[in-house]
């Protein structure tokens, strides 16, 4: 029996470096998993390097055998009280940092929204009047109401009312002859054979295909109060109230911009309706 054990030991082979007992008789061997045969034994030093590669600096990561998937039993020397406290503090800080970073990010966005809301109030109502309104208001109302101003502007910007106007225009344009006089070729979009002949009805683009970028929506929404103030001063300078002048300027800007956008999309629609595919040019035979 001793002879068999000796033969078994002599034929140990490391599955990492493929060395045997004869190559290094002082090396420490370990049997870390359920494997049998040639993958049963491995050098302690070789396995340590292999575990380091798998953990990639994270000493708490679990490592398993690549053959039998048995998890390696890795133990560490006991830590002293000071080192234990430092290690515990390091782990707690590592786990708390993502939540702290998220909180800082949310807080920064919130206070930025509050600041933007306060600036918008002073811009729309007037600097002195806006300060008086915010000083008399309840602080809790300001903390809730001011950050909702940019949120409501962004949500309002996402409402594509021009598309609904465009659908109504295409549906009832044959009944309004004045539109055909103002915009020639309008009858080409009439569906179901009513009015002028239709060369082609273009395929309706899906809402996702004609989306506006997030940055465009954000910039357009946040700059809208400034544009409304400027348009109000230019077009309604006779109005004394800053708030009324800004509201009228905003309505005028939205209406004018929407009219141009509807007209632009309609012309693109008509251009698609007149699209034509040409014959392939014939090549002269040599």
TrEMBL record:
Q: Which residues form the RING-CH-type domain?
A: 6-75
**Mode of membrane association:** Multi-pass membrane protein
Q: In which pathway does it act?
A: Protein modification; protein ubiquitination
Zinc-finger: present as a keyword of the record?
Answer: yes
The residue ranges crossing the membrane are 99-119, 140-156, 217-235, 247-264
Gene3D superfamilies assigned: Zinc/RING finger domain, C3HC4 (zinc finger)
Superkingdom per UniProt: Eukaryota
Could you list this entry's UniProt keywords, alphabetically sorted: Membrane, Metal-binding, Mitochondrion, Mitochondrion outer membrane, Signal, Transferase, Transmembrane, Transmembrane helix, Ubl conjugation pathway, Zinc, Zinc-finger
The protein's name is E3 ubiquitin-protein ligase MARCHF5
Please name the Pfam families in this protein's record.
RINGv
Q: What GO CC terms are in its UniProt record? A: mitochondrial outer membrane
From the Swiss-Prot or TrEMBL record, state where the protein is found. Answer: Mitochondrion outer membrane
Q: Which InterPro entries match?
A: Znf_RING-CH (IPR011016), Znf_RING/FYVE/PHD (IPR013083)
Q: Which PROSITE patterns match?
A: ZF_RING_CH (PS51292)
Gene Ontology terms, MF aspect? ubiquitin protein ligase activity; zinc ion binding
What SMART domains would the database entry show?
RINGv (SM00744)
- Give the residue range of the signal peptide: 1-19
Q: Which reaction does it catalyse?
A: S-ubiquitinyl-[E2 ubiquitin-conjugating enzyme]-L-cysteine + [acceptor protein]-L-lysine = [E2 ubiquitin-conjugating enzyme]-L-cysteine + N(6)-ubiquitinyl-[acceptor protein]-L-lysine
The EC number on file is: 2.3.2.27
């Amino acid at each position: 029996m001793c002879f068999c054990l000796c033969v078994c030991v002599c034929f140990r082979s490391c599955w990492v470096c493929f060395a045997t007992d004869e190559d290094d008789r002082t090396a420490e061997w370990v049997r870390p998993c359920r494997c049998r045969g040639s993958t049963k034994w491995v050098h302690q030093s070789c396995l340590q390097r292999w575990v380091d590669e798998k953990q990639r600096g994270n000493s708490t990561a679990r490592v398993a055998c690549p053959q039998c998937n048995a998890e390696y039993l890795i133990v560490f020397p006991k830590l002293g009280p000071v080192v234990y406290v430092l290690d515990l503090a390091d782990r707690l800080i590592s786990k708390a940092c993502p939540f702290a970073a998220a909180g800082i990010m949310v807080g920064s966005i919130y206070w930025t929204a509050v600041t933007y809301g306060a600036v918008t109030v002073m811009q729309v109502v007037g600097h002195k009047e806006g300060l008086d309104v915010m000083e008399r208001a309840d602080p809790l109302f300001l903390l809730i109401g001011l950050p909702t101003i940019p949120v409501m502007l962004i949500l309002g910007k996402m409402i594509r009312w021009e598309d609904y106007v465009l659908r109504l225009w295409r549906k009832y344009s044959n009944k309004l002859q004045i539109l055909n006089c103002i915009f020639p070729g309008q009858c080409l979009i009439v569906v179901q054979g009513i009015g002028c002949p239709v060369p082609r009805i273009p395929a309706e683009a899906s809402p996702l295909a004609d989306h506006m970028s997030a940055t465009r929506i954000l910039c357009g929404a946040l700059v809208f109060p400034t544009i409304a103030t400027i348009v109000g001063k230019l077009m309604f300078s006779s109005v004394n109230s800053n708030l009324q002048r800004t509201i009228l300027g905003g309505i005028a800007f939205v209406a004018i911009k929407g009219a141009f956008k509807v007209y632009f999309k309609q012309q693109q629609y008509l251009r698609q309706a007149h699209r034509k595919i040409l014959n392939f040019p014939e090549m002269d035979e040599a």
